[in-house]
């Protein structure tokens, strides 16, 4: 679906009109193309007094071929593809002034579609209430920067555990590589937590899923089809699953990426067992499970019949639980495995006419919260993504004015693309991201809904 307004504002007449009337100004976003450098320019790396993360972050960026700049040698004319700041040394609210001193003179120095990443310590791990208070304050900083800097610039906060291990270092690298690259074009204002866990760096960061068997449900169209393509591009052997009625579209997706297709109704009583038997006989395991299958059956709660309620809960939430139970019980997801579920900002903010859908998607977040600590003990990570307004056939059916509101009510003033969700799920699926678990990452351009 084409966003004609976004295309128009890129023209001379469009830019003049936007400036004169103060209309939304959707920037052209930098998205990932294989072979691209991690960032299209130098990165300025700064640190608070006593910060513990600047050194490992600097080594990661240098290894990735990034040109690093020193705050002491930059000038007012310097321009940067990204600002990375280690705030882990801030232990008191008075020390938050260091953030102002670093970002204030450089607020206009970030290139279009640039990145801002702040590194901190999880408040729950801080040594004192004052330190925890100061570290929690970082969320307000990064979310505000995401709304202020404009021109496609995104801002994120990464909390990195104090009790790190080798997996922590690897997952910090995977997270920085994702957040600084074009893969994260439609992700902004997010908080990512990197803990300890099983994580393995790839031999080639351009193919971070080499050798991995990945199951994608709901793969026949939309976000699911984009997922299959991105994961295959990154080296995965993709098992694409959808209902029999979507068989032709599913086969086209699977054939296009050299994957395999499975036609299965996930609501059938024997579906989890049949899926487990297929994966066991064909592959012996499944390294990554992506629960993408979902439906909508919209009505206000007072007008909704029971079938609409039951079908949405069953497909969007209960089927995920049943599949997880069987695959885990049969040890088909090995240590180092990944489970990624698709939630929605509707599960965070609610949505009129979608009580069933919002309930199911909030349940997905509950699944991540409750099950991720259990799976961590088995070396398996569990995360969710929560898409906002994504340009698909479903959103194309929304009435014009509501569709335009959905597109513009975020910091990037545009809808996202299915590939934006796919890239985020790809990052969470990487073997290198094993210490990233229990997160719900919104892919919504920093939507005002639920903010």
UniProtKB/TrEMBL annotation:
Keywords for the protein's UniProt record, in alphabetical order: Oxidoreductase
Q: Which InterPro entries match?
A: KR_dom (IPR057326), NAD(P)-bd_dom_sf (IPR036291), Sc_DH/Rdtase_CS (IPR020904), SDR_fam (IPR002347)
Single GO MF annotation: 3-oxoacyl-[acyl-carrier-protein] reductase (NADPH) activity
Annotated Ketoreductase domain ranges read 212-388
Cite the Pfam families for this sequence. adh_short_C2
Q: What is its EC number?
A: 1.1.1.100
List where this protein forms a coiled coil: none
Question: Annotated region Disordered: where?
Answer: 22-41
Signal sequence extent: none
The family this protein is said to belong to: Belongs to the short-chain dehydrogenases/reductases (SDR) family.
What name does this protein carry?
3-oxoacyl-ACP reductase
What organism is recorded for this protein? Micromonospora maritima
């Amino acid at each position: 679906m084409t966003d004609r307004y976004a295309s128009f504002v890129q023209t001379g007449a469009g830019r003049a009109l936007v400036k004169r009337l103060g209309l939304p100004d959707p920037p052209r976003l930098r998205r990932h193309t294989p072979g691209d450098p991690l960032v299209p320019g130098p990165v300025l790396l700064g640190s608070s007094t006593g910060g513990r993360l600047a050194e490992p972050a600097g080594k990661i960026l240098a290894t990735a071929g990034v040109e690093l700049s020193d705050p002491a040698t930059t000038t007012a004319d310097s321009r940067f593809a990204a600002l990375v700041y280690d705030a882990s040394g801030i232990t008191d609210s008075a020390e938050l002034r260091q953030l102002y001193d670093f970002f204030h003179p450089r607020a206009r120095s970030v290139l279009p579609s640039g990145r801002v990443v702040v590194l901190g310590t999880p408040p729950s791990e801080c040594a004192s209430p004052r330190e925890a208070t100061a570290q929690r304050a970082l969320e307000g900083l990064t979310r505000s920067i995401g709304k202020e800097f404009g021109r496609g610039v995104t801002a994120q906060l990464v909390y990195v555990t104090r009790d790190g291990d080798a997996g922590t270092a690897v997952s910090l690298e995977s997270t920085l590589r994702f957040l600084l690259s074009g893969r994260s074009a439609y992700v902004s204002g997010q908080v990512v937590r990197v803990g300890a866990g099983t994580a393995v760096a790839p031999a080639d960061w351009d193919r971070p899923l080499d050798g991995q068997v990945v199951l994608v449900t709901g793969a026949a169209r939309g976000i699911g089809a984009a997922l299959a393509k991105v994961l295959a591009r990154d080296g995965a052997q993709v098992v694409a699953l959808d209902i029999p009625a979507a068989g032709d579209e599913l086969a086209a997706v699977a054939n296009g990426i050299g994957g395999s297709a499975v036609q299965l109704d996930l609501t059938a009583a024997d579906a989890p067992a049949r899926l487990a038997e297929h994966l066991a006989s064909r592959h012996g395991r499944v390294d990554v499970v992506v629960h993408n299958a979902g439906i909508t059956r919209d009505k206000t709660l007072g007008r909704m019949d029971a079938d609409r309620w039951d079908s949405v809960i069953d497909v969007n939430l209960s089927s995920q639980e049943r599949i997880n139970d069987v695959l885990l019980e049969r040890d088909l997801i090995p240590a180092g495995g990944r489970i990624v579920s698709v939630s929605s900002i509707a599960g965070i903010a609610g949505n009129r006419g979608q009580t069933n859908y919002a309930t199911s998607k909030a349940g997905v977040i509950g699944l991540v919260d409750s099950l991720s600590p259990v799976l961590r003990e088995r070396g398996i990570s569990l995360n969710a993504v929560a898409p906002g307004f994504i340009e698909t056939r479903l959103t194309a059916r929304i009435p014009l004015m509501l569709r335009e509101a959905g597109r513009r009510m975020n910091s990037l003033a545009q809808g996202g693309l299915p590939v934006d969700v796919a890239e985020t799920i790809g990052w969470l699926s990487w073997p290198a991201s094993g210490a990233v678990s229990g997160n719900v990452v919104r892919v919504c351009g920093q939507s005002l809904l639920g903010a």
